Amino acid sequence: MKYIDEFRDGDIARKIAERLAEEVDPDKNYSFMEFCGGHTHAISRYGVAELLPPNVRMVHGPGCPVCVLPIGRIDLAIQLALERNVIVCTYGDTMRVPASNGLSLVKAKARGGDIRMVYSGSDALTIARQNPEREVVFFAIGFETTTPPTALIIRDAQREGLANFTVLCCHVLTPSAITHILESPEVRQYGTVPIDGFIGPAHVSIVIGSGPYEHFSEEYRKPVVIAGFEPLDVMQAVLMLVRQVNEGRCEVENEFSRAVDRDGNLSAQALVSEVFELRTSFEWRGLGEVPYSALKIRPAFAQFDAERRFELAYRPVADNKACECGAILRGVKKPTDCKIFGTVCTPENPVGSCMVSSEGACAAHYSYGRFRDIAIVAEAS
Amino acid sequence: MVKKNYIRPLDLKNGRIDMGHGAGGRAAAQLIEELFVAAFDNPYLRQGDDSASFALPVGARMVMATDGHVVSPLFFPGGDIGCLSVHGTLNDVAMSGAQPLYLAASFILEEGFPLAELKRIVNSMAAAAREAGVPVITGDTKVVERGKGDGVFISTTGVGVVAPGVDISGINARPGDVVLLSGTIGDHGVAIMSKRESLEFETTIQSDTAALHTLVAAMLQAAPGGVRVLRDPTRGGLATTLNEIAGQSGVGMVLEEASIPVLPQVDAACELLGLDPLYVANEGKLIAICSPESADALLLAMRAHPLGAQAVRIGTVTEDPHHFVQMNTRFGGRRVVDWLSGEQLPRIC
User: Deepest in the core among A31, A127, A231, B78, taking most CB within 10 A?
Assistant: First the structure.
């Protein structure tokens, strides 16, 4: 496949791996956080970790949109479907995220909720047009990548005067999450999460540009390399990070220059700020309340805001006690540090959100990498 | 003037299924006579009994398989629920190494379903059965109220006989065995997806739906005793099927990603939809696990058959107490190829 295969070339991967092996300082340990679930997925699916030197460790970040959705938000969507007879439309992975009372959207669907999986928000708009007698809610999740399309459908709905369509907005912001991690005591005070640099988001950066990350390299002295979601992108980004660390540099570099520039997509940004404004605070699974980390619909578009239309009251719900998703999302723990990983919590019966999407740290490790754990377990016993 | 003994035939152009067609009265008899018996035409059906009786070779080992078909949409590029319901069951019978002999079919029709579409489906089914040389010898029709079905559901059951000495089962894989695949993966699932409401995209991909029993017969002839496991990787795709076999046989497997054939169109569609072709359904492909000595002969025989022209060796069976199916990626890493979790796409067959 043109423009894809080039970035999955095994020969080039081996060459980068050789260069990495030559350039890493054997006396040093390197820990890099890949912020995005897209990178986590690529690392696991293509076996990238195997090609990295043993002293380079990848720490999975919180950038998996369904993983950071708190239970309370899913509960709202389920409530709409089961109690308000609303058609709830959402992206595929959101369907399986565990919520309160042993429910998820998939299970709520089996109990009679009209919940539909869509590939794009505009499909939800189509469903609203086709069902004028029903209320249709698009359960909108995701980082800056999925925000502009949601803004677009809200604007379209307003132009059309669509009266039965609203959006339950759960869009979150990448830079505030990174700041939150860097400000966390584990990183700042205790050093329990060593982070020597970040692999910066691919698709998010297409929208917001590389500019917003400059703050992290300057303020927190952490190198950032923005990278595409193909495995060679990741390998190259790791090499660039190793070089920055070795040379004592803390810069924002752009490996994904085929798609990302400094300013990003200005018309998408304009559209987003036309429709959305900042929430003063938003609950993330794993990170808790993060100030100014999410968006809500501006008053000018209030009639398309499901929270207002249905007078929804958000109620935070604590995660399952045994679940370590919170610590895993902050990089404090690895999936295998969780007692219920692979036993009680599996992709078929996820307890925590990290086990749901293949971009989640636990699901990625379970589905692609768990054969590596066996030897370790056997040695320990 | 109306002719004597004239009965107005079914309106196969504009008519629709109504509750009467399932009530067991004249309307039901007429539907069976004019549509089903006419299409499947054979002496067993013409006899008009509620069952069919047939003789078997003395001492023969019989194989029986049944399969329900609920695919949506009913018509898709490269096939429809009719031929699919024949191929699906024939393949299940054939994967035990058997020669399929007879089929039974049961239809659940939804009130209001157009007779013209039903005729198209039944004709496609009859053509598939004829081509395979396996007649549909008994059947049943039920009608459910509008909104209680989705047009038509078809269950088929097949019986066949296994030649003496043939022992093929998912429990037979042994470390050192070779894993063969008869052709490209993911064609059926992607063809279905391309016609799904809300997903529709333009593609040239056709479902691979086909009856595999003649390919199986050619393989058994080429390497008698060499074939240990046969399985058609339908729902859950290649990945799930290999995991099933690994579990049944208590072994592991290592695959080579670079050797697994995927059509560029299928690859592209999967990339776009965020799917992995390893988990996308097939309806005309088989996996064979065979002894290392017989692999070359089998590959030759498979490639000589039109349904196995692109047959390849994709991996080996290993000793592994954890029954992992692993894969050396094209990229140079290694990963687990796990069971499908959740549903990638519902109602594909």
Answer: A231
